[in-house]
């Protein structure tokens, strides 16, 4: 049936909501009818994809609309266009059928599709015998969606997409294009308003800032060589093995000679061997997802599925992960589902409505960061985020995710005054939709990727952060593997900043944390947050003159490595960076030429070596029976001593003297008679200390030993029998 003139007019103007109903090939009483818009053409001949001539089309409108009958069944068509002595080929996207199927529709509608990253976004595929890119985007309230890019002159009339109305997804297969093509979505809202061009929420690659178009790309790589690494972590209980994390901002760990970012392969050549040398088990990157603003450090992401272009192509990051795994190092990513920025090319009012965010700012605006909050209660939004967690595990083989700002998700009144938030249905402040989302994420990644670990940066006393997210844990249980112990960080750093003469009055800054040390599975974080925004460096937080600051820092590190919980250290702290960290420059690596700084680095290496080698120091990190106080109340001398234990392993006593006084003949209770070897002394000359100690060994009898405690130092004694 011949379409109405108004329909053809809207088609030519690019305003028709369903061009697939008018363009392409159709069966009819006179055979197959073809209609195509072919800009610039004067003559058109149709061919099958295998090169057989099928007939010609005639121009029926000067705006390059062509029609004709073909002597074959409906199928994908390639046109040879001719004008002014020039020929070119165009494969018609409107002659191809849809890529998504009814099973996809069902799962997407239910919010239970766990392979969305295989379906939405831009995928290089072969479809109905032709290579090209399949584009699919969720925009349920749009009147019309087009994909625009460098392959169609950014013209929204050229590739208006097919609307799968039941699920609000728009799709089109664009033949004969491949990777590294820039694109965005041109979206007309329900009210007819044209939105700013939108980057693809599922883009696997983006342009380098300040440009922000999405790029067609093959995510990750195919020739992985890390099966042994992944099998190892799938076979162990991460709570009972050493986990020592080196937190890295990839843009400022080191830079090239032009002060530009290292590419992933350069980072692999430098960072992986360094982490191996230092003895860490994992690298944790501050967010590497695409983000427009460098000073956000990646926490204001606009492309959750795209490794930032600052460090090269996506496959480069995959090579980095593979190289780290082959060297025995895990890779953790900082992940930000807590908020997203308001950049107009991002998710904000994506289809002209509050789609990913809440319409009401009392629910959907985060005042701390001037950002928006995901609508976790919308199943498509929750599915988008859960799939992103699965994506990094699946496509890039990352070992874990550290989830940023969990507390801001859990509470509706987070950073809000009275009247600025809306209670839940029970009248409380809990955001149960966010709780359900976090539980779903942890169930998905732990269920589908054995050995994967999630970490929560949760700064309150929310009950059950690391309890299983099932009926055993209760409704509030979130299912994380570990929680950052923010209390440890704040209390102990406050203690270390005090003059030793005053520490006797603040003894509980060290002891208090051990009252709750086993209430969750904890990581002890000395993170980037402690060395920015005027807080100075970790070394600068220590009290005293320069020598005492170094001694305090060494004693603190040794106490931390002897304290129950996994370890995390931000880059630069391992060699006592003096300046506050800035994302604009590399770390001050020249400091390692100075003995005091290299001494701290040597200490961290030895702490990691001991921590990994001695089960007493790691097997009971999350279990109360792996810890026993030896000296808890000697506030007068600012001395702390405890025992770390593990089954079938010699115990290790950790003893800290937090004053500059050398204490000889100090009586330390020890449960086993015999020799105890001094396996670590933070006052060693090798670390830049004064060299005081116990000549490598002490003898215990009658339930105690007489020990020399070096000034501002922590020692470790291992039972030798």
From TrEMBL:
CDD domains in UniProt: AmyAc_Glg_BE (cd11322), E_set_GBE_prok_N (cd02855)
Annotated InterPro entries: A-amylase/branching_C (IPR006048), Branching_enzy (IPR037439), GH (IPR017853), GH13_cat_dom (IPR006047), GlgB (IPR006407), GlgB_N (IPR054169), GlgB_N_E_set_prok (IPR044143), Glyco_hydro_13_N (IPR004193)
Catalytic site: 404, 457
Top-level taxon of origin: Bacteria
Catalytic reaction(s) noted: Transfers a segment of a (1->4)-alpha-D-glucan chain to a primary hydroxy group in a similar glucan chain
Residue intervals of the Glycosyl hydrolase family 13 catalytic domain: 247-607
Keyword Transferase: yes
Alphabetical list of Pfam families matching this protein: Alpha-amylase, Alpha-amylase_C, CBM_48, GlgB_N
Pathway in which the depicted protein is active: Glycan biosynthesis; glycogen biosynthesis
Enzyme class (EC, first level): transferase
Family (UniProt): Belongs to the glycosyl hydrolase 13 family. GlgB subfamily.
Function in brief: Catalyzes the formation of the alpha-1,6-glucosidic linkages in glycogen by scission of a 1,4-alpha-linked oligosaccharide from growing alpha-1,4-glucan chains and the subsequent attachment of the oligosaccharide to the alpha-1,6 position.
Record text on subunit structure and interactions: Monomer.
Protein name listed in UniProt: 1,4-alpha-glucan branching enzyme GlgB
Gene: glgB
